[in-house]
Design goal:
By secondary structure, the chain is α/β, with parallel strands linked by helices. Among the domains are: about 5-25 and about 115-290, Rossmann fold (3-Layer(aba) Sandwich); about 380-450, no CATH class. Helix content is about 30%, strand content about 20%. The protein contains 14 helices and 18 strands. It has helices at about 130-140, 155, 180-190, 190-205, 220-230, 250-260, 280-290, 320-325, 365-370, 380-385, 395-400, 405-410, 420-425, 430-450; strands at about 5, 30, 40, 50-55, 60, 65-70, 80, 85-95, 100-105, 165-170, 210-215, 235-240, 275, 295-300, 310-315, 335-340, 345, 360-365. Strand 8 (about 85-95) and strand 9 (about 100-105) form a beta hairpin. The longest helix is centred in the last third of the chain and has 18 residues, at about 430-450. It starts with a strand and ends with a helix.
Length: about 450
Amino acid sequence: METAKRKGRFSFRGGVHPPGSKELSEQQPISPGPEVTQLTVSLSQHIGQVCKPLVKKGDQVQSGQRIGDDQAYVCAPVHAPLTGRVKEVSLQPHPVLGRCMGVVIDVDQPGQVQAGASSSFEGLDLDRYQPEQIRQAVRDAGVVGMGGAGFPTQVKLDPNPKWPHDLIIINGCECEPYITCDYRLMLERPYKVIAGALLAAKAWGGQRILIAIEDNKPKALEAVSAAIARMAPDKMGLVVLRTRYPQGGERQLIRAVTGKVVPTGQIPPMIGILVMNVATAAAVADAVVLGRPLTHRVVTVTGRAVARPSNLEVPIGTSIGRLLDHCGLTEDVAKVVVGGPMMGFAIADLACPVTKTTNAVIALTADQIRRPEQGPCIRCGRCLQACPEGLNPTLLAHAVKGYAWDLAKANYITACIECGCCSYVCPAKIELAGLIKTGKVFLARQKGKM
């Protein structure tokens, strides 16, 4: 096992260096969110089968009670974050889907909070947990990937006997601008993150564990390094990577840490590598050691239009508007983004709830979102140089505009990770990433009709 801090020798091709803007919130410790009187718990918070409601209007629910689930393999249950009464089960706003079914809970005691300290994870005997026991606890707790698309974690940890099980990479890069929730987790709760990584490795059968952190987070590096030395010196290593976006992308991270390339059309476990976000690792520890379902998460509330940027631990189902009210807004707020500014989603309805994958809420000013007039492509090639997947964004965008779907597929449009690097560097200000994303959605819908 690697036990020493080492500099990543490899790096992915392409990428960009947008302003980090993390100074707005990185010094703010994790703190409890605002008191809430109502929660909207979405039944679709993960990739896979949407949960069926297990409660109905008028039912009394307890904190941690399962309120949605399905028997499908790729599914993760949802739980009531706080005790209360079900007001309704109906279509509700969703930050990504627009609208989906959700359970609205009137909270009995608005002051209910969930503790999240990590000191109890130091020195635990994790060897007593068996792989199947870990996977079942993770499934029961509804843990999903909290730094990406929300893939059910118990499915990810289910080992495929046909594939190797070499390396687990714990992703602490947090490369998107503004977001600092994972940084604060590593700084304040490193033992919980390490415990979750060790449990995940045991469940999946991984032979090695590496935690990857960018070099713009020296305090997190120090905290994690010290925790590894005390808790898992022979089982885990720490990799320091150069700061670059999208360093935290799954395929880019694997290239940077190992030098390996995940072939197009394959997933990392096929080449013996599993990637897990630090918040997900912490949730695994909560699920296995404490039997605690995923009902709360840390959210960075930040942006030039936020009066008091914060890292808040909030119940899932809290409205975005409630978080912004708590942190305060300046008068010139013009757009609210859920997630990062590069890959996040702008929302029009502040009633949208926090979900398991909501890592940030960013309020932007009018000056920040002013869109310059688009010009014609000047064939400069900057988008090709920036694309971390080695695609030709200009060609793909032209194919989408011309409905040349065979050309788009032949040039691997589905391999686009929607990082936005091409749009960021385009001197003509063409929305290349938006066009490519539109094309991917169209092709996915066409495939679904076949």
